Amino acid sequence: MPQTITVRAADLVAEAEREIETLTPAQAIALVGRDDTVLVDIRDIRELDRDGRVPGAFHCPRGMLEFWIDPASPYHKPVFAQDKKFVFFCAAGARSALATFTAKRMGLAPVAHIGGGFGAWKKAGGPVEPRG
After folding, report:
1. Do the domain assignments include residue 132?
2. pTM of the predicted structure, to 2 decimals
3. Chunked in runs of 10, what are the mean pLDDT values of the chain (132 residues)?
């Protein structure tokens, strides 16, 4: 018997976007180098190697996000215990919307994501380090 999917991925993203802060690429670019902000790249390592990286961004693969945020997890990363704003991004903005919603739900604050993701960042002239 085939599965009946009642909620689409796009619906989940739309729901998340109603509940989180979305930054324009220009707003996010203005945060580069600030001590009160952590840019969090949730793309897969292969995407970073292929497309480049945002200088200074912290890389957290999407599949590890909840475990790295949770201080009770053996996988916790101290970066997420800092009193800073966390700005998530992925390639196009959908995964980062879901990640930001999850981080907010877990209690991480303040959080936001970059609308349009890394693609929009590059198009807006944001700094990019070459792959590798």
Report:
1. no
2. 0.96
3. 95 97 98 96 96 96 98 98 98 98 98 98 96 68
